[in-house]
Amino acid sequence: NEIRLFSPATVANVACGFDVLGFCLDSVGDEMVIRKVERKGIYITHVEGFDLPYKAEENVAGVSALAMYEAINVDFGFEIEIYKNIKPGSGIGSSAASAVGSVFGMNELIGRPFNKTQLTEFAIKGEALASKCEHADNLAPAMFGGFTLVKSISPLEILEIPSPENLYATIIHPQIEIKTSEARAILPKEVSLSNAITQWANFGSLIHALHTSDFGLIQRSLNDVIVEPYRSQLIPHYKEVKRAAIEAGALGAGISGSGPSIFSLCHGQETAERVKEAMRQVYSKTNIDFDIHVTKIN
Ligand code: HSE
Q1: In terms of Cα–Cα distance, which of 171, 191, 91, 172 is closest to 131?
Q2: Which of 140, 188, 199, 205 has the fewest Cβ atoms within 10 Å of its own Cβ atom?
């Protein structure tokens, strides 16, 4: 009647795949306990780590749980405990981890009536509460693992993209908060045709490179000419961190989701550790607190 689960952090956009591409960080995430209870309804009964609302309708995990609850006609309810490690506003899918965790857990407790795409659909409602728009590029990798591509939101179609052997990510999280809604508000509503061409060439190439384990092509494809020029201004020392990562051997680097976290992709763990050191050094010289992780992408 109870399940304890790990709900992973995720990196959305991955440079050229704004709002559609993402990958899962297997070793960073939240824990949640979901419990089937007699009283009907959805109840957030415990929150630890960061301050989050207890009212289900105001809580991301609660809203996605309510969306699923409405779809199942049952005479019992669920309690949700959230042990948050992923700081809200950090750019590694904090809201997505909450939104996915509650519905995944509930589904397990009632015999898995829904598939992962259907569960993601409920989770979109929770994510929308946090970012004021419906996007699933953090939800999909949190739900499926690895790299995912959100082909469309309505109807929801998610593609699982293979990860090459030995692909690692480093993530540095400077302790400043950027609200996704604000980082979206600064983006232009229209893009030039020439930038669009560059972006979709890079995006298509990156997907091809992931399928064929072509690390050189990953390196040449990790560029973002549309979003990064605007959002990078919100992140202190962004250019230095990116340069340091690439000089230390990263295939490329970019803003994780809406920031402020910065990710890099690396071929092999040794390189990833070297890149971690290089990124660390940039922020060590500032008075900004940060944490930094290396994780294999599965
Ligand atoms: N694709 C979304 C954005 C992800 O960049 O706004 C938010 O984490």
Answers
A1: 91
A2: 188
95 lines ligand 1 (CB under 6 A): no
Q: Yes or no: say if 22 and 265 are a contact pair by the CB < 8 Å rule.
A: no
pTM for this model (two decimals): 0.96
Does any ligand 1 atom lie closer than 6 A to the CB of residue 10? no
**Residue of 250, 279, 254 whose CA lies nearest to 266:** 250
Q: What is the pLDDT along the chain (298 residues), one digit of tens a residue?
A: 999 999 999 999 999 999 999 999 999 999 999 999 999 999 999 999 999 999 999 999 999 999 999 999 899 999 999 999 999 889 999 999 999 999 999 999 999 999 999 999 999 999 998 877 788 999 999 999 999 999 999 999 999 999 999 999 999 999 998 988 899 999 999 999 999 999 999 999 999 999 999 999 999 999 999 999 999 999 999 999 999 999 999 999 999 999 999 999 999 999 999 999 999 999 999 999 999 999 999 9
Q: Which atom of ligand 1 is nearest to the CA of 96?
A: 8
Which tokens in the block code for residue 47? 């929150």
| CB of 78 closer than 8 Å to CB of 93 | no
Residue to mutate (ligand 1; options 14, 24, 137, 231; most atoms within 8 A of CB): 137
Q: How close is the Cα of 16 to the center of ligand 1, in Å?
A: 12
2 catalytic per annotation: no
What's the Cα-to-Cα distance from 195 to each of 78, 80, 198, 201, 218, rounded to whole Å? Answer: 47, 44, 5, 10, 19
- Ligand 1 centroid to Cα of residue 111, in Å, is 32
286 annotated active-site: no
**In the numeric block, which tokens belong to residue 207?**
């997907």
Nearest to residue 7, comparing CAs of 85, 120, 107? Answer: 85
